[in-house]
Amino acid sequence: MGIRQMTSRAVFLDRDGVLNRTTVADGVPHPPPTVAELQVLPGVAEGLELLAAEGLLRIVVTNQPDVARGTQSREAVEAINGRLMEELPLDAIFTCYHQDADGCDCRKPRAGLLSRAADAHGVDLARSFMIGDRWSDVAAGQAAGCTTFLLEMPYSQSHRCRPDFQAPDLLHAVRRIVALVRDDGGE
What are the C-alpha distances in Å from 142 to residues 5, 12, 23? Predict the structure, then answer.
């Protein structure tokens, strides 16, 4: 992490199923294939504004393995990411384009994306949070040392992880994070 002091706090957010609607087929969530099909979920903009008001960075960390599988283009993923950056108060988006077989360190449940984001933005991981809708998001947050939140979805596989907190949606998770930050004096 270099000599720069890690002073910022962040909320790391999964993308699909947390910020935007997914399509679920056979119990597996799938991202929107194009910008035209992108739908931001209710309460997301409000939740991100609440985090911004508390001085928390909002950083998306997303697995997009369909690029490696050849069923999605990198350009389409980047267009969706770009639209989210335009429409929502986000600070950054970090994307892993690999699939499991690639063995990279950036694919969740590994903590590589969170570590890279922390290095780039001076984030203190131990004082930060991870919100996701799948067990791999929670595992990545735990591997990075963050406080974790699992959004309760039919496909979340909560039996595969032990998040610090569970919530029905992003806004509920954000309200809990705001309370936790205020309880510790925002430090």
Answer: 22, 12, 27
* Domain limits, the chain: 10-183
Say if residues 178 and 50 touch (Cβ distance below 8 Å): yes
CB atoms within 10 A of CB 36: 9
Among the listed residues 16, 133, 137, 169, the single catalytic one is 16
pLDDT digits (tens, 9 = 90+) for 32-83: 999 999 999 999 999 999 999 999 999 999 999 999 998 899 999 999 999 9
Instruction: Specify the fold of 10-183.
Output: Rossmann fold (3.40.50)
Q: Residue 98 carries which side chain, given as an amino acid letter?
A: H
- Give the global pTM: 0.93
Is 14 considered catalytic here? yes
